[in-house]
Amino acid sequence: MIPDVRSLKVDTLEQREPTLFSIVRNEIALLPEFFSHYRNLGINQFIFYDDHSKDGTLEYLLGEENTSVLTSDTNFGEVVGLYNNGTEMRFVHWMKANLPKQFVPNGWVLVADADEFLVLPKEFPSLPECIQHLETRKISHMTAAMVELYPLTLSQRNSPVGNSEISQAIFFDQGPYHEYEDGRYEPAIKFERGIISRLLMQLNSQYPELVESILSEYGVGLNGPKSWKVPLINNGAGARHLHDHAIYEVPNLDVSGALLHYKFTSNLDEKIDWDLNSKGYYRSSVQYVLLREIINKFETTPLISSESRIYNDIDSLYEADVISRPIFRW
């Protein structure tokens, strides 16, 4: 099945310019900072899929320069095909795997959600310079650690400072988060680190019967979110996404960035409700069932622990063993 996706606005796309692709729904609060961040990185053309936003997101996107906007009547969580291993592919995953390649078949595309802000290795002032380096070394992609930024308490998600939704989320947890091994598409070892994994363990420790009931209903084990992605690929070099977190080749780790994940923002509760209704994620969005319980139980609990670090810049992530410094000479 090929979903029916239609264009609401199509701007000229230069294949030699890096392009950002993002799927959004009611993200007006984050979009100004999102655009500012990525334009400062050197991205000047964008493709957005808008999933029927009601908060002014669509109007905002239609007014942005060099921004193409797509939409569809297909439900976000609808099954539209199968992966090679026979598991169901939902519409949201089909989009990320196919739409960037359709619009930018010969160039570099960064796939990022509205709450994901890419940080480059400090040696690269801009994404085009990073891409030039990757092309020189015939590398078709860049991996990134998923770094969850969080405020002092979950209650602060509803208290943005000024116009910033992310200003209070300055903490992250010490690494390492995962460990790759030669010959594997995904990390061989996943350490249960990061604020969401930590809160899941706390929920399980204090409310074991509740957690057991949820896991039993959905038929899953207790696992935190994946702490890695391959957000940047070169379609022109034949790189293809297997899914959000892997491509159809063993990842090259010589150059790795980080995706700062600002999950705890003022529309989180609305997102949880929508995700649970759409059932667009793993096992009918069980992770959001658990996240809702975390918020209910720990909303005013201080999140700071011995694992907490303050994010200032990429050096903060190097020092916390979240990502490794480039392993080659410049």
Task: Explain what the structure shows.
- The mean pLDDT is 91.
- Strand 3 (45-50), helix 2 and strand 4 (67-72) form a beta-alpha-beta unit.
- This protein has helices spanning 31-40, 57-62, 91-103, 127-136, 195-206, 208-218, 268-278, 282-298, 314-319; strands at 5-9, 19-24, 45-50, 67-72, 79-82, 88-90, 108-111, 116-119, 141-148, 171-173, 178-179, 189-190, 228-234, 241-243, 246-247, 256-261, 308-310.
- The radius of gyration is 19 Å and the shape is globular.
- The longest helix has 17 residues, at 282-298.
- The chain starts with a strand and ends in an 11-residue tail after the last helix.
- The strands form five sheets. The protein has a nine-stranded mixed beta sheet.
- It has one domain (5-319).
- Helix 5 (195-206) crosses helix 6 and helix 6 (208-218) packs antiparallel against helix 8.
- The protein is an alpha/beta fold.
Largest sheet, if any?
9 strands, mixed
Helix and strand content put the structural class at alpha/beta
Round the mean pLDDT to the nearest integer and report it: 91
Biggest β-sheet: strands ordered side by side in the sheet: 1-4-3-2-7-13-9-16-8
How many helical elements? 9
